[in-house]
Write a structure and sequence with these properties.
Pfam families: DUF1996. This is DUF1996 domain-containing protein. Keywords: Signal. By secondary structure, the chain is mainly beta. The protein has a domain of 246 residues. It contains five helices and 18 strands. The strands form four sheets. Strands 1, 7, 8, 10, 11, 12 and 16 form a seven-stranded antiparallel beta sheet that branches. Strands 2-3-4-18-9 form a five-stranded antiparallel beta sheet, with no helix packed on it. A three-stranded antiparallel beta sheet has the order 6-5-17, with no helix packed on it. It is globular. The structure holds 2-acetamido-2-deoxy-beta-D-glucopyranose (4 copies).
């Protein structure tokens, strides 16, 4: 609650900020954005959101093909995904790390992620109006091939927090924590990577993030250049959108809470003192962390929320503009796995990596 009250204390009268939970929709090797049609894709993902998700949703509007969602706001049929985290045992076998729900979400949500759509920051939406993403819009953040600390440090939207409790915020690192974390590891994905302002408050990673769209392309060959990424502009606070990317869209962010506590006994950790967690990409440093997004809000529901002054759960009915469903309803939505391999048992190799 501590962190949340700090965020709440910053709330001024004229902005909207969405923060909501989505339970797990599917854990499998599919990637319709980067590897459309590849069944299976290169590595395992955890996907949340609408059940329009499949291997080939290359241009479609998932808000018209899905009929349920794992997200609290029931008009949000978007898909959100990241790599999956595994524990590597001393005997070389792997076990997927369970996920737990963040604090202050709809009760009973199973696994999943916390999703944010914010404006300029928690004090103000700035001078510009925020334009919701358009049907068919998609983008990625980070890259599964990032393998140097330099590149990871520069990608400031991609960070980890070693959770002392579910509410720990700040103290972010570009690589996996090197010590056992009492409440697990939070993986943070901010679209886009953005210089972190030097604000000494715990909600720091949620502030002054600006996203700018070129206003024309729903996607681009690298899935990123239709958006303005401040990684290209070095470590500067986000300014106004450049003329190449003039449209202010919401700042999108994911938080995933990986419950590593079942693996925190140091006698299980590698004898060389290194940490034992690996992304499904095979990366044991954490540099390859990445996120994918396909927009899928029904009609103008996201725009209505962005035009409102609501905050967090206040954006839901009956007082806010968005429809809400219960955690139990969220958990009921799922997609059948197209790729039927085992991702959950004790595995001799990571799926797709022999
Ligand atoms: C994926 O969904 C789209 C849109 O509903 C559909 O056209 C396509 O056939 C589906 N592909 C697979 C592999 O199920
Ligand atoms: C919802 O979509 C799923 C998967 O596309 C389909 O199997 C199911 O029949 C649909 N249910 C309803 C009530 O339309
Ligand atoms: C923002 O939107 C409002 C309502 O549509 C409009 O009156 C105003 O001029 C817009 N502001 C800017 C900076 O575009
Ligand atoms: C995290 O994992 C541990 C060990 O399996 C379990 O006891 C605990 O209940 C889990 N915590 C949450 C919040 O799910």
């Amino acid at each position: 609650m501590k962190w949340f009250s700090i965020a709440a204390a910053l709330v001024g009268p004229a902005q909207a900020g969405l923060r909501f939970g989505c339970s797990t929709l599917s854990i499998q090797r599919l990637d319709p954005l980067v590897e459309p049609g590849n069944i299976p894709s290169a590595h395992v993902h955890q996907i949340v959101g609408g059940n329009g998700f499949n291997a080939t949703i290359t241009t479609s509007d998932v808000s018209t093909t899905a009929n349920c969602t794992t997200c609290t706001f029931s008009e949000d049929f978007s898909n959100y995904w990241t790599a999956a985290l595994y524990f590597k045992a001393r005997d070389g076998r792997y076990k997927r790390v369970p996920i737990y729900a963040n604090a202050d979400l709809e009760s009973g949500i199973q696994g999943g992620m916390t999703i944010y759509y914010t404006q300029l920051d928690f004090n103000s939406n700035g001078k510009d109006n925020i334009t919701a993403f358009q049907p068919g819009f998609r983008m990625t953040l980070g890259s599964p091939t990032t393998n140097t600390k330099d590149a990871a440090v520069k990608n400031t939207g991609l960070r980890y927090t070693c959770l002392q409790t579910v509410m720990t915020r700040g103290a972010e690192t570009p690589d996996f924590p090197t010590k056992p974390c009492p409440a697990g590891i939070m993986a943070i994905h901010h679209f886009p990577a953005q210089a972190t302002p030097t604000l000494h408050i715990k909600a720091m990673h949620l502030l002054t993030k600006v996203r700018c769209w070129d206003g024309k392309n729903l996607d681009s060959p690298d899935h990123q250049s239709h958006m303005f990424s401040t990684t290209k502009g070095a470590f500067q606070n986000a300014g106004p959108c450049p003329s190449s990317h003039p449209i202010r869209v919401p700042q999108l962010a994911y938080e995933t809470l990986w419950n590593t506590t079942g693996f925190n006994d140091k006698s299980l950790w590698p004898t060389d003192g290194s940490q034992p967690f690996v992304w499904s990409t095979g990366d044991d440093k954490g540099y390859s962390t990445h996120g994918d997004y396909i927009f899928g809000w029904k009609g103008d529901s996201l725009q209505k929320a962005m035009d409102s002054t609501c905050m967090f759960t206040g954006c839901g009915s009956p007082n806010g503009p968005l429809k809400v469903q219960t955690g139990a309803q969220q958990n009921k939505c799922a997609v059948q796995n197209t790729v039927t391999e085992d991702t959950e048992g004790w595995l001799t190799s990571l799926p797709g990596r022999h």
